[in-house]
Amino acid sequence: MKKIKFTTTQIILLSFILLILLGSILLALPISSANGNAVSFIDALFTATSSSCVTGLMTLPTFSTWSIFGQVVILILIQVGGLGVVTVMSGLMLLMHKKLGISDRLLIQDSFNLSTMSGLVKFVKKVLFGTLVVEGIGALLYMTVFIPKFGGKGIWISIFNSVSAFCNAGIDIIGDNSLCNYMSNPLINIVTSMLIIIGGIGYIVWWDLLRVFKLYSFKNKKFLKHLTLHSKITLTVTAGLILSGAILIFIFEYNNPLTIGEMSLLDKIQASLFQSITTRTAGFASVPQENLTNASALTSIILMLIGGSPVGTAGGIKTVTVATLFCSAFSTIRNKNNATLFGRRISDDSIKKAVAVTVFFFTICVASTILLLATCNTSVINAVYETVSATATVGLSRNFTGTLNIFGKIIIILTMYLGRVGPISLAIALSSKKVSQNVISEPTEDISIG
């Protein structure tokens, strides 16, 4: 009997499936429910998928449905799903002083989509340590607000919120309206926003910034020029999207009494900025999403589509991917042979990958939207908002997730999974054979474009 051999990408996909199934079984137990009555398996599966895929869409309110045991299960799923099953397992192996073999290193390389196997053990250690430090600081800052309000329970709420924010999950156990009650609280807004951004920019950017800060003085105004091209693109696009998104939402919602219309000017700015940041796949809401104007909803959809940055906890098409596509397009318009950014040429391989990721991503979004509209009674804007949020693993909803029927729940479950593992990774994993390079290539023929 021939032994089945899985590729590294297939192992990664299967590891998430196993994590989701294990979480579903645990959440379906009566001990996981706050009232002692087991929830339906489909809702347990939905919750486990949303937690493992760090999405945040929920058919049942997290704070009132689940017991402490259930909440602990959800938090573990968020943490493991955010870091990646392979990363956590590798960390446990290192903790037990076990060496990582070639197969383990290949898994780590594929899970983070890294181009080299050099220094992978050190990379994993820094990721786990950095995550622990950032989440710990976030939890301590949250405690200054939640302990005075909730007492001892505030410690657990702070830890849960910090992990969820850093992993860009957007799941909380504070109440049934996310962070709407804290839309005017500067500390909650700032801490949550910083955790979202730090988790979303990616670990590669972390280490690159630290490298530059160590080598070059802060007084040197040109110290940022020493960053890698990846870091420059990530930081520039991230800052640009957050700022432009906040300005547009501020303008579109300024007179909307259902969102920020009746707030002070400072609170309007704060709420607009938070909405722009949370759409970068975080999923926390400080204003009801269903009350947004159509212009703000469309702006949020675009921001959700783009998402965060590679090799981080965020989802979406990713900032670097979008920058690469735009750069390639403008280079073509200007009849330039090469696409360049910050004085560096972007490789043709990177452009091809960017196109592939974007096409697969949009295919999932469109297919999910059509299926959702065919099976659920809702508006187009609600369906698009839901499916984009699921594919980009954001977690924002126009108060629609809780109304999904059985077919709608299955569609969103599959969409969240596909959005987390990545369209291009799924395509590679489902390839039964490696495509060999032909010695003689096919003949070339021009076609009409545009």
Which terms summarize this structure?
two-stranded antiparallel sheet, 2 strands, 450 residues, mainly alpha
Strand order of the largest sheet: 1-2
Task: State the helix count.
Answer: 18
% residues in beta strands? under 5%
Note the overall shape: globular
The number of domains: 1
Tell me about the biggest sheet? 2 strands, antiparallel
Spell the H/E element sequence: HHHHHHHHHHHHHHEEHHHH
* CA radius of gyration: 22 Å
Number of strands: 2
Which structural class do you get from the secondary structure elements? mainly alpha
Percent helix among the residues?
55-70%
Low-confidence runs (pLDDT<50, min 5 residues)?
430-436
**How far is the N terminus from the C terminus?**
52 Å
The average pLDDT score comes to: 86
Entry summary:
By secondary structure, the protein is mostly helical. Helices cover 62% and strands 1% of the residues.
Which secondary structure elements does this structure contain, and how are they paired or packed?
Layout: H1 8-27, H2 41-52, H3 62-65, H4 68-83, H5 85-95, H6 102-111, H7 120-150, H8 153-166, H9 186-201, H10 203-215, H11 229-253, H12 265-278, H13 294-306, H14 319-333, E1 340-341, E2 344-345, H15 348-375, H16 380-391, H17 406-421, H18 423-429
